[in-house]
Write a structure and sequence with these properties.
Length: 271
């Protein structure tokens, strides 16, 4: 596994904070936006890495298919996902024993992409709810709004649990039926209008959607997902490498605490 160029330090902004007040807001509303997350230096480097990765896409692959790149040698993504400040956030949500479940690099080129309908992440990650909840982070590498593919959430919908989804039969798979949406969904909707380096977190049960990129600007986003190491089950999944279309198995890494269920978890893909 080839390591990539040096990752900037520090990665996480000094003003990033997820304390008791922030956690109470998240528990009540099902989402939270961080005004400061990445340092300016980390944003510059992340854009360079994202551009390089996009240029390496295998023929026919899209920027929405860069799954778990930390397993393919992208150490800069691993370094962000396992920064102690970020693990503090995940620990407050999930407890002291943490597994890095998944990372993504999601790219919408200028003038591309599609609307992603209202859905809950839980239907993808754990429809049987064996190891819920999951801690999710959505990190902007570009300025993002409705014109270039941002995300919107419906506050407090996480309190309803897992809702029925229709199977769309494509990469993004599932959608909530309009009949199950709140009647005042448009009035409740909170749209992520983020500057590069800001981030948001939402419950895996929160209803959310995203827009296509109708602008001349890029939309590059990194997502990070954690799960508790004491979950009853972990689940298997196979990914397709964006580099050469080869198939690889998702691996779970113990990033904090103890391997309490003795799965034999590795601490890092770079050991």
């Amino acid at each position: 596994m080839e390591h990539v160029m040096h990752t900037a330090r520090p990665l996480i902004h000094d003003d990033f904070h997820y304390g008791e007040e922030e956690h109470r807001f998240f528990e009540r509303e099902g989402y939270l936006i961080f005004d400061r997350f990445l340092t300016d230096e980390a944003v510059v480097e992340a854009r360079a890495h994202a551009g390089r990765m996009f240029s390496q896409l295998a023929e026919g692959m899209s920027g929405t298919e860069m799954m778990s790149p930390h397993q393919l040698g992208e150490k800069w993504m691993w370094d962000i996902a396992t920064d102690p400040q970020l693990l503090d956030y995940a620990e407050r949500q999930l407890g002291p024993n943490l597994i890095l479940w998944h990372t993504d690099l999601l790219v919408k080129e200028p003038g591309t992409g599609r609307s992603i309908p209202w859905h809950q992440d839980q239907v993808y990650w754990d429809p049987q709810q064996v190891f819920a909840p999951v801690a999710n982070l959505w990190i902007a590498f570009d300025d993002i709004d409705e014109t270039n593919g941002t995300m919107s959430v419906l506050p407090q919908t996480h309190a309803h649990g897992l809702l029925p989804h229709a199977d769309l039969g494509d990469f993004f798979g599932f959608a909530i039926d309009d009949a199950d949406l709140p009647q005042d969904a448009e009035e409740q909707e909170v749209t992520y209008r983020l500057k590069a380096g800001q981030a948001g977190t939402h419950s895996s049960y929160s209803l959310h959607r995203s827009t296509p990129n109708s602008s001349s600007n890029w939309r590059r986003v990194m997502t990070v997902h954690f799960m508790p190491a004491d979950a009853a089950g972990m689940g298997q999944r196979h990914y397709t490498s964006y580099l050469d279309r080869s198939t690889f198995d998702r691996e779970y890494y113990l990033v904090r605490g103890e391997d309490v269920n003795r799965h034999g978890l590795k601490r890092s893909p770079f050991e």
